[in-house]
Amino acid sequence: MLTHHNLVSNTEMCTNWTYKKGDEGAHEHVLAVLPFFHVYGMTVALNLAMMNGYTLIILPKFDPEQVIKTIAKQKVTLFPGAPTMYTALVNHPEIDKHDLSSIKVCLSGAAPLPKEIQKKFEEKTKGRLIEGYGLTETSPVAAANPIWENRKNGSIGLPWQIQNLRFSMRILENF
């Protein structure tokens, strides 16, 4: 059973993981095409946006053409997804007709991320696409590659752990 504390802690870790030092508090535009009934979509899209007051842009399903147009029009900065989504995007014939440079960070999960897809996606968007690993029991993210520092492409990266004691204390104070 997942507790609210599990979900809040993982969302806070996601917040901490996605920023460079000194970039905290930026206003992001999160594109949500992952289903919210799945813990990955709920935590890394819905909860992340809600906890931080980000703009949440919701599409009812993944359609590569619609996603490309939405990123360009809405200036999406964060886009969590699965490798099949990023593969469909980089191979879409219309991708070069749209400005996708607003993308800062994409976290790929649900399956291994092919290195060539990561490279092509980053070339087209100038954003960072990192691979992570999670499962429902870990609320969901258990490990991910660093976004801004050295990363080891083709791996799931480093384990996440609660590093923000101030946030944990704030939760306990509000109990």
The 3D shape can be described as: globular
- Terminus-to-terminus distance: 20 Å
Mean pLDDT value: 87
CATH topology: Rossmann fold
* Broad structural category: alpha/beta
**How many H/I helical runs?**
6
Number of domains: 1
CATH 2nd-level architecture: 3-Layer(aba) Sandwich
Estimated radius of gyration: 16 Å
Order of helices and strands: HEHEHHEHEEEH
Helix fraction? Answer: 25-40%
Biggest pleated-sheet summary: 4 strands, mixed
Tell me the name of the CATH class.
Alpha Beta
Percentage of β-strand residues: 5-15%
- Low-pLDDT runs: 163-172
Total strand count, please? 6
Largest beta sheet: strand ordering: 3-4-5-6
What features would you describe in this structure?
- By secondary structure, the protein is α/β, with parallel strands linked by helices.
- It has a single domain, classed as Rossmann fold.
- Helix content is 38%, strand content 14%.
- It has helices at residues 4-17, 39-52, 64-74, 83-90, 115-125, 165-173, and strands at residues 29-32, 55-58, 105-108, 128-134, 141-144, 158-159.
- The two termini are 20 Å apart.
- The model is unreliable at 163-172 (pLDDT under 50).
Features:
globular, alpha/beta, 6 strands, two-stranded parallel sheet, four-stranded mixed sheet, Rossmann fold, single chain
Question: Nutshell version of this structure?
Answer:
The chain is of the alpha/beta class.
